[in-house]
Amino acid sequence: MTKTYRQWIGLVALSLGVFMALLDVTIVNVALPTMVRDFNESFNNVQWVLNAYSLVLGVTLLIVSKIGDMYGLKKIFVLSLGIFVLASAINGLAPSLLVLDIGRGVQAVGGAGMNALAMALVAISFKGSKRGVALGILGSVIGLSSASGPLVGGYLVAQFGWRSIFYVNIPIGIVAIILTLIYVDEVPDISRSQKIDFAGMFLSAASLFTLIYGLILKESHPHWGWLSSQMIGWFGAAILFFIVFIVVESRISQPMINLTMFKNPHFVGTVMVALALGAGIYSYNTYLTALMQNYMGYSALGAGVRQLTISIWSLLLGPITGYLGNRYSKKWMISGSLFLGGIGFLLLANAMTVKVSFMALWPGMVLMGITNGLVNPLLNSAGMEGVAVREMGMASGLINVFRQIGVTLGIVCLGLVQNKVYETYLTQHFSRVNMPHAAAKAIHQALVNAGPFSGHSIAFSSRLSQTPFGHAVQQIVWQAYANGTRAVSLAAAGIVIAGGLCAAFLMRNRKAH
């Protein structure tokens, strides 16, 4: 078998790993209601199945990236695959929510290695114009996995139950391990010349943990102020750990992260685009799924099928984008694509009415999908340009960390925007409903406490629907939700447009070394 065939089969193996790692960030969303019933737990408790994965993934990405750079990217990638497969089996067999939460944390450690190191392995394995195409394909897999979670999860949960979303990883993971061992070449390690920076690893993990955990708390308690006593401790600790991390890393000879990478405007522009992509495109999918399922009445599978309008573009555009990125300016393609995404969000904002339909949503969703399908592959390729081989794992890890923080930050901030507009509309219009004062106060408070996602189940309950004022309440709740989601769409437009400006002003037109 020729070297070329070996490279492309190796790319398949690496893509399988990335697909599983990122799919498991979103696939669990549609299974949470079923888990609530099976474990007889509250939704807030069960949500930690999702939070545990996101938290550990964000905390361990940089650590695994550095270990891969030091001891061999292929070795650590295969080890990560093994951890992921083993944890998937534990999750599928989990007898309790606690075991499942622990298993998800372990699974995220494997997912971090797969996610962070695959890009570096591809960048090192392919040379010249092939690198752009290969990274384009990997980028399309990243975009497709992140966007197709509702569809894949909806189908598996509906047909085989929630445990199947973990069992399906086992055969795919085993195939990926075998293909990686046979067809992916190892990168010479540099462990003999470097020492593990334990202080840097601890401080980076502590900083990311306190930041992401604080954001998770904020998401669960939207009425807590950013400077409230509950929040200031976590965010203050994150800032403190980060400052100490910078001081320590700048004073040792073999730091975990080469901080001079951030003196390069091109690399800074790349990670800012990754942040905007996570905060704008990926986090918005959460609100689009909630709109389709909670308010438009689609099943999880039905919502997933319609979201193919977004995800299919990653599959179609990845290889093409890699080819175009070799011929034209990645900087302006990325910037222009993000501006196109901004237009898509403006179209979605305009479509948000109480009579919203899929036919009104699909033009904006198409532009979202094209943006994702173009930016992700180009971002991977641009981020690796000019990076030394010994630092490619870390460069890949940083891009993924910023993307993951963007997702968490976006979900929180967009949620706060939606909550604020939703509650303001309810407060301003609820007094106009002709109903007893005591009932109005109780229903209004229940809707505020439930929040935008769950308000529909209260407003459209059979008990309230049978009252003389039920229809009026339902119209107000629908309009409040539509207004909130319109505001979310406008905020997402601002985020991706800001990312486009970062690309335009910071990124450079350059070729890979």
TrEMBL record:
<keyword id="KW-1133">Transmembrane helix</keyword>
<dbReference type="GO" id="GO:0022857">
    <property type="term" value="F:transmembrane transporter activity"/>
</dbReference>
<feature type="transmembrane region" description="Helical">
    <location>
        <begin position="332"/>
        <end position="354"/>
    </location>
</feature>
<feature type="transmembrane region" description="Helical">
    <location>
        <begin position="267"/>
        <end position="284"/>
    </location>
</feature>
<feature type="transmembrane region" description="Helical">
    <location>
        <begin position="400"/>
        <end position="417"/>
    </location>
</feature>
<feature type="transmembrane region" description="Helical">
    <location>
        <begin position="76"/>
        <end position="100"/>
    </location>
</feature>
<dbReference type="InterPro" id="IPR036259">
    <property type="entry name" value="MFS_trans_sf"/>
</dbReference>
<keyword id="KW-0472">Membrane</keyword>
<feature type="transmembrane region" description="Helical">
    <location>
        <begin position="487"/>
        <end position="507"/>
    </location>
</feature>
<protein>
    <submittedName>
        <fullName>MFS transporter</fullName>
    </submittedName>
</protein>
<feature type="transmembrane region" description="Helical">
    <location>
        <begin position="133"/>
        <end position="158"/>
    </location>
</feature>
<dbReference type="GO" id="GO:0005886">
    <property type="term" value="C:plasma membrane"/>
</dbReference>
<dbReference type="InterPro" id="IPR020846">
    <property type="entry name" value="MFS_dom"/>
</dbReference>
<feature type="transmembrane region" description="Helical">
    <location>
        <begin position="196"/>
        <end position="217"/>
    </location>
</feature>
<dbReference type="InterPro" id="IPR004638">
    <property type="entry name" value="EmrB-like"/>
</dbReference>
<keyword id="KW-0813">Transport</keyword>
<feature type="transmembrane region" description="Helical">
    <location>
        <begin position="12"/>
        <end position="34"/>
    </location>
</feature>
<keyword id="KW-1003">Cell membrane</keyword>
<dbReference type="InterPro" id="IPR011701">
    <property type="entry name" value="MFS"/>
</dbReference>
<feature type="transmembrane region" description="Helical">
    <location>
        <begin position="304"/>
        <end position="325"/>
    </location>
</feature>
<feature type="transmembrane region" description="Helical">
    <location>
        <begin position="106"/>
        <end position="126"/>
    </location>
</feature>
<feature type="transmembrane region" description="Helical">
    <location>
        <begin position="360"/>
        <end position="379"/>
    </location>
</feature>
<feature type="transmembrane region" description="Helical">
    <location>
        <begin position="164"/>
        <end position="184"/>
    </location>
</feature>
<feature type="transmembrane region" description="Helical">
    <location>
        <begin position="46"/>
        <end position="64"/>
    </location>
</feature>
<feature type="domain" description="Major facilitator superfamily (MFS) profile">
    <location>
        <begin position="10"/>
        <end position="511"/>
    </location>
</feature>
<dbReference type="Pfam" id="PF07690">
    <property type="entry name" value="MFS_1"/>
</dbReference>
<feature type="transmembrane region" description="Helical">
    <location>
        <begin position="223"/>
        <end position="247"/>
    </location>
</feature>
<keyword id="KW-0812">Transmembrane</keyword>
